[in-house]
Amino acid sequence: MPAASAPLFQPYLTEDHRDLQRHVEDVVTAAIAPLAPLMEARGPHTDREVRQIVSETGWLGLLIEPEWGGMDAGHVAKTVVLAGISEVSPAAGAILQASILGAAPIVERGSEEMRRAWLPEIAAGRVWPTIAVTEPETGSHVQGMTTTARRRGRSGFVIEGEKDLIGNAALGDVHCVVARTGKPGAPRSLTAFLVEQHMPGLEVIRRPLNGLHGFGADELRFNQVHVPTSHIIGEIGDGQDIALLSSVVWGRLNLAAVALGIHRSLFEATTRWVSTRPRYAGHLADLEPVRRRVAEIWHRLMTAELVAYHAAYLLDQGQPCDAWLINSKLTAVRAGVRSANDAQQLHGGHAGRIGTPCEQLKRDIDLINAPAGPEDLQLKRLAEQALGPARAEWSVQHAIRRSARRRAPTVTAGPDPAS
Ligand SMILES: Cc1cc2nc3c(=O)[nH]c(=O)nc-3n(C[C@H](O)[C@H](O)[C@H](O)COP(=O)(O)OP(=O)(O)OC[C@H]3O[C@@H](n4cnc5c(N)ncnc54)[C@H](O)[C@@H]3O)c2cc1C
């Protein structure tokens, strides 16, 4: 085996992780690889076959505790799964990551009743959740959001407004929606709610992306959607914390893993290309400048893999690691985008042919920058870690709640949320 084909992150993997890795390879080879070119050829659409395939594996429950039917396999395991899928189909990786992330608010802050009602359904793949924070005007400025949730008597809240770029908006069954319940600028003025796809007044508006064909990040419009108080996630006023905790602890690494898969695929496609494309008496791979660019791609891939697995490992160990989580996404996306540029150079004019791996992967990696915060926002957060002002360590809050839940008495999965 050439050195470049060997996994670089072995020290972080246990025997269970290796078993999972083999299982991922089997599922990807048997079910996702044959689907990937069809998804790509169809262009922007919402693919439901990936949902079916992944639901059967139980991977939607990778981070859900066993008492709710999940695997509780941890973030290293999740990275193995998302990177393995994304190497063959970045869109399939994006579909799974968006709904793993969608479960974060319920896992992290849902009441016992809410977790009992929803997590078994999610772990079994019968219910796919999403997280809906971003708005058309305010984007990453979460505190500026204008979607409102107004109290309607004692029975619940009425949500009015719009969310945009919501991963799996059309595929999801339930959305974890953050909305304004207090005055703009006031502390604790945002609250998170579960909004079910069938609730009257909820509309999905398709807004196609230029890549990740098969994955959709669409608009959700809330026209006076009535939500019962049982659907509040955590407490009134917890919305901003829930959005940030989900994004930092779950989202950054999810996206890093998808970027790793794309990056590895770019590396493989490029080494194949330069090793087989004739030039003079040999191949492109014999030319020194070409070799140098391939070395640069591999160097970035190795670095990105190490950072992501290190961050996931620290998180699984319950260590404070916000800076590593931020760094994992920053490094994976930056490295992947730069390698896509090198791959484009090495493919010459052929990189512009629609449907070639290089063209597709370049489009796809570009789309991984914004979700869970674009590069400039990651740098802003890293600067805060280095220079202040001090912020809550979300990884610590995650670890504290997780160990508290593990100490709590075991409970059994309850009835179907629809009943
Ligand atoms: C494929 C994909 C999937 C997504 N999935 C989801 C999802 O599931 N749920 C969800 O809620 N959202 C999702 N998003 C939305 C994503 O979270 C937002 O795109 C992101 O938060 C940035 O918001 P914005 O695009 O409105 O950019 P803006 O916030 O408008 O920022 C645009 C640019 O302005 C600069 N900028 C803005 N603010 C600052 C600042 N404070 N400091 C420095 N520079 C700044 C940066 O250069 C930034 O890139 C997804 C997006 C994509 C592309």
UniProtKB/TrEMBL annotation:
<dbReference type="InterPro" id="IPR037069">
    <property type="entry name" value="AcylCoA_DH/ox_N_sf"/>
</dbReference>
<dbReference type="InterPro" id="IPR009075">
    <property type="entry name" value="AcylCo_DH/oxidase_C"/>
</dbReference>
<keyword id="KW-0274">FAD</keyword>
<feature type="domain" description="Acyl-CoA dehydrogenase/oxidase N-terminal">
    <location>
        <begin position="14"/>
        <end position="125"/>
    </location>
</feature>
<dbReference type="Pfam" id="PF02771">
    <property type="entry name" value="Acyl-CoA_dh_N"/>
</dbReference>
<dbReference type="InterPro" id="IPR006091">
    <property type="entry name" value="Acyl-CoA_Oxase/DH_mid-dom"/>
</dbReference>
<feature type="domain" description="Acyl-CoA oxidase/dehydrogenase middle">
    <location>
        <begin position="131"/>
        <end position="225"/>
    </location>
</feature>
<protein>
    <submittedName>
        <fullName>Acyl-CoA/acyl-ACP dehydrogenase</fullName>
    </submittedName>
</protein>
<dbReference type="Pfam" id="PF00441">
    <property type="entry name" value="Acyl-CoA_dh_1"/>
</dbReference>
<dbReference type="InterPro" id="IPR046373">
    <property type="entry name" value="Acyl-CoA_Oxase/DH_mid-dom_sf"/>
</dbReference>
<dbReference type="Pfam" id="PF02770">
    <property type="entry name" value="Acyl-CoA_dh_M"/>
</dbReference>
<keyword id="KW-0560">Oxidoreductase</keyword>
<feature type="domain" description="Acyl-CoA dehydrogenase/oxidase C-terminal">
    <location>
        <begin position="246"/>
        <end position="386"/>
    </location>
</feature>
<comment type="similarity">
    <text>Belongs to the acyl-CoA dehydrogenase family.</text>
</comment>
<dbReference type="InterPro" id="IPR009100">
    <property type="entry name" value="AcylCoA_DH/oxidase_NM_dom_sf"/>
</dbReference>
<dbReference type="InterPro" id="IPR013786">
    <property type="entry name" value="AcylCoA_DH/ox_N"/>
</dbReference>
<dbReference type="InterPro" id="IPR036250">
    <property type="entry name" value="AcylCo_DH-like_C"/>
</dbReference>
<keyword id="KW-0285">Flavoprotein</keyword>
